[in-house]
Amino acid sequence: AMPQTQQAEKSIVPGSMLPIRTVADLTGINPVTLRAWERRYNLITPQRTPKGHRLYTENDVELIKQVLDFLDQGISISQVKPLLEQAPSQQQAAPFAEAGEVWKRYQQTMLSAVEKFDENVLDSTYNDALSLYPVDVVNQRLVAPLLRIIGERWKEREVGIAEEHFFSVYLRNKLGARIHHLNQRSRGPLLILACLPGEYHEIGLLLFALATVNFGYRVLILGSNTPLDQIPHVLKKRPCDGIVLSGSARPSRGLFESELPVLVKQCPIPIFIGGRTAAKHQQKIADAGAICLGESISSGLKSMGQRLKGGS
C-alpha cells in the first residue's frame, strides 16, 4: 500500500532483473540489510552485472518477503535459512524456542550500556540490529521493550532518572539523524507528525516517523505538546498529504469532543491518530472524523497507506 512500492510494482516485468534499489522499494528492506543477509548468512544470492552491481529476480523478491514473515514472528535471522530449506508443513510446526533469545541478548547488552552510560556500545549494538532487521521489527522487539523497562524502574534506581534521560537523548539524536537522512532522499507524500496537546514524550512519534520515512514518505515533525490550532497555519505555508497525531498520555479536556472536530473541518486532508491514547478512544476519534491507527506501528502504516493510496 506504500507509495514507492506501488511505483516499483508497476515497473516490474516478468522475467526481468531488478536492481537493489527497486528491490528495497518493493520489500521495504534497505540495501544495507539486503547486502548483510547475503554476506553474513548467504540468504539471497543475486546475480551481478559486469560492473558488479547486484540484480535480483522475481523469485528473490518472493524469498525476501518469506524471510520478512519469519522475522515478524520474532525468529532470528540466523535461524531463517534452515527454516527456508524445510518443507512448508514442517516450517509451520518448527519449534521457535530460541526465537526471542536474540532480542533478549540485544536488550541486555543495550541495558548494560545504559547503566554504564556507554554510548559507543549502545550505538554499535543498535546499529547491528538495524543492519540485520527491518526497522519496525527493531522498534517493536528491541526499542519499545527497552523504553518500557527503563521507564518503569527509574524510581527504584539511584541513577534511574539519569539513565532514562541518557537513553532518551541518545534515541532522540539517533532517530533524528536517520529520519533527516532518509527524508532528504524521499519523494513520497508529505505528512505532518505531531504529539497531541499534553503529550511531552516524543520518542513514540519519532519511532513512527522513522518507519514512515523508511517506506518512502516525507515527514514534517512538530514534536511534543502541539496545540491543534497551530496545524492549519502550518498547512497554509507547507501543503501536506496527511496529518498524524500521536499520544500515550491522558487526553486533555475537550480534545476529542471539540478541538479535533474543529481541526478536521479546517483540514481537507486525512487526520490519523496513533499511540495508546488512540487505542483507548477509538469511538471518539471516529466521531470527530479522524482515523484511528492504534498502537502498532506496522499495522498503523498499512492502514495509513491504504487511505492515502493514489494521494499526492
Ranges where pLDDT stays below 50 over 5 or more residues in a row are 1-11
Largest sheet, in brief, is: 5 strands, parallel
Spatial strand arrangement across the major sheet = 5-4-6-7-8
Name the helix and strand elements from N-terminus to C-terminus, one letter apiece: HEHHEEHHHHHHHEHEHEHEHHEH
Approximate shape: globular
Strand coverage percent: 5-15%
Radius of gyration: 21 Å
Number of strands: 8
What is the averaged pLDDT score? 87
Structural class: alpha/beta
Report, as a whole number of angstroms, the end-to-end distance: 14 Å
Characteristics of this structure?
alpha/beta; disordered N terminus; 5-stranded parallel sheet; 3-stranded antiparallel sheet; 312 residues
Reconstruct the topology from this structure.
Layout: H1 3-11, E1 18-19, H2 20-27, H3 31-41, E2 47-48, E3 54-56, H4 58-72, H5 77-84, H6 88-93, H7 101-115, H8 119-132, H9 135-153, H10 160-185, E4 190-195, H11 203-214, E5 218-223, H12 231-237, E6 242-246, H13 255-266, E7 271-274, H14 276-280, H15 282-288, E8 291-294, H16 297-308
Parallel strand pairs: 4-5, 4-6, 6-7, 7-8
Antiparallel strand pairs: 1-3, 2-3
Helix pairs in contact: 1-2, 7-8, 7-9, 9-10, 10-11, 13-15
3D architecture notes:
With 312 residues, this protein is an alpha/beta fold. Helices cover 60% and strands 10% of the residues. The protein contains 16 helices and eight strands. Strands 5-4-6-7-8 form a five-stranded parallel sheet, sandwiched between helices. A three-stranded antiparallel sheet has the order 1-3-2. The longest helix is centred in the middle third of the chain and has 26 residues. The protein is globular and about 60 Å long. The two termini are 14 Å apart. The N terminus is likely disordered.
